[in-house]
Design a protein that fits this description.
The protein is mainly β. The chain has helices spanning about 1-15, 155-160, 240-245, and strands spanning about 25-30, 60-65, 70, 95-105, 115-125, 130, 160-165, 185-190, 200-205, 210-215, 220-225, 255-260, 265-270, 285-290, 300-305, 310-315, 320-330, 340-345, 365-370, 390-400, 405-410, 420-430. Strand 9 (about 200-205) and strand 10 (about 210-215) form a beta hairpin. The radius of gyration is 21 Å and the shape is globular.
Length: about 450
């Protein structure tokens, strides 16, 4: 059966037509990885990295509906500096989101691209819970040299709140990984509510989908996912977590992408890899979860990866049933070979809602190639091309040469590496190449 699924994925890719001709790269910008954010948390984390390092925010981007303002969400903080493998080198970095102004301006005559792009950090907001969370105690085993201090942020007592953190040991061992009382949080997808007052964020540890107050960063709602999306045996070590479970998400490969439908009624979450019971890293049948925001009711579908070596990194809504999906390999620079954005349609896909294990016979989401980032005409491929293309957002329309065009912002995650920049790419799209597109219906102008 697995061979049949793999063949279906291959046939699906072979049938995909070429990307549209009128999708142009109009701007690009790189932000150094050594900058600081506006959190004021300059003190060193357990690994020695400053707690206000501005990085990782290419994991997800969302337009706010106000001017040129976007929100970007860093993932689980710095963990590239080896210091303690028992927590996968994660730290008690406090999760946060940033508000950025991304402004397009006409480029000087003779420039390689028609627009310049500037990125200005406007604010940093920490994410917290109004109720207590389960933090790591630091007691990780018998090796005293690797024992850590408590994972409770010092800022908790100062601000009388409970902040979410990146450290992998921040969980209640008596609960499944989807328990919303866990402190550990690895944000990977973000969208803004239509009134501009709330943020929806998905993560990889749970997987969780939470609603936050945009002004304060405080959680106001948790959406309950089926138990079979989480793992029953949690561990501070990702590899141990995988080997200890036969169902649920793969460690650090949970709900990587999040979309919101234009009317603001549904969230659509995309897993990075198939669940363990669906084949895990050896399979291509990846789940999509649609969540009714008002009721919490769920629908589930399947998206076929082009290869079991690929991962799905982001999803953004075209309308209430069509979406763009970012699918990529895990290579960078000249080794990068697959960095593609697909248009998918859930209309005729099989609903697999409530099925802990996928059936042998199903119809996946229809899938066509929309944009190949490595297409030579964009001149992005090469030694500096990033591995982790992870953020997609439609921005405000622009007028070019007398015609209105849609904009698509694409971002990369630099893994908080000070020597590695975060990249922004902006594409302009003709209406004919994005038929059926409905912009999100923002009703507020929260800044």
């Amino acid at each position: 059966m697995r061979n049949a699924i793999a063949m279906l994925a291959l046939l699906q890719v072979l049938a995909i037509p070429a990307a549209q001709a009128e999708i142009d790269l109009i701007a690009r910008h790189s932000v150094p990885g050594s900058l600081s954010d506006l959190s004021g948390l300059a003190g060193p984390l357990e690994s020695g990295v400053p707690g206000n390092l501005l990085g990782g925010y290419g994991s997800s981007i969302a337009y706010t509906g106000a001017g040129n303002l976007f929100v970007v969400v860093p993932d689980r903080g710095p963990n590239a500096n080896p210091y303690n493998p028992l927590v996968d080198d994660t730290t008690s970095y406090i999760n946060r989101f940033h508000t950025m102004e991304l402004r397009l301006t006409p480029a000087p005559r003779g420039s390689a691209l028609p627009y310049g792009l500037s990125a200005v950090l406007k604010s940093t907001t920490l994410l917290s819970s109004p109720t207590p969370l389960a933090y790591g105690t630091g007691a990780l085993g018998t090796d005293a040299a690797r024992t850590l201090a408590s994972g409770v942020p010092q800022l908790n007592s100062i601000n009388n709140t409970f902040y979410f953190t990146a450290r992998t040991d921040g969980f209640d061992p008596g609960r499944p990984s989807t328990y919303p009382g866990n402190a550990r949080f690895d944000p990977e997808g973000v969208r803004v509510s239509n009134d501009g007052k709330r943020l929806f964020i998905s993560d990889e540890y749970g997987p969780y989908v939470y609603q936050f107050d945009r002004a304060t960063g405080r959680r106001i709602k948790s959406f309950v996912l089926p138990d079979y999306y989480g793992v029953g045996t949690q561990s501070a070590s990702g590899e141990k977590e995988v080997s200890s479970n036969t169902s649920g998400r793969i460690a650090n490969r949970g709900m990587e992408g999040l979309a919101i439908t234009p009317d603001g009624s549904k969230l659509v979450g995309l897993m990075q890899n198939p669940l363990l019971q669906d084949g895990g890293r050896k399979d291509v049948r990846n789940r999509i979860v649609a969540i009714d925001i008002a009721t919490g009711a769920l629908e589930e579908y399947v998206y076929l990866l082009a290869s079991s070596q690929n991962v799905a990194s982001e999803i953004v809504a075209i309308n209430d049933h069509e979406f763009l999906v970012d699918e990529r390999d895990q290579r960078e620079g000249t080794e990068a070979a697959f960095k593609k954005i697909f248009r998918i349609d859930l209309s005729s896909a099989t609903r697999v809602t409530g099925m802990e294990r996928l059936p042998a016979d199903l119809t996946p989401a229809a899938k066509t190639l929309f944009l190949d980032l490595l297409d030579p005409r964009y001149r992005l491929a090469g030694k500096d091309f990033p591995q982790k293309i992870e953020g997609l957002a439609f921005g405000p329309d622009i007028v070019m040469n007398g015609r209105t065009r849609h904009t698509l912002y694409v971002t990369s995650d630099n893994d908080f590496l000070a020597e590695q920049p975060s990249h922004f790419y902006v594409f302009a799209i003709d209406a004919n190449d994005l038929k059926g597109y409905e912009p999100q219906k923002f009703t507020g102008q929260v800044r």
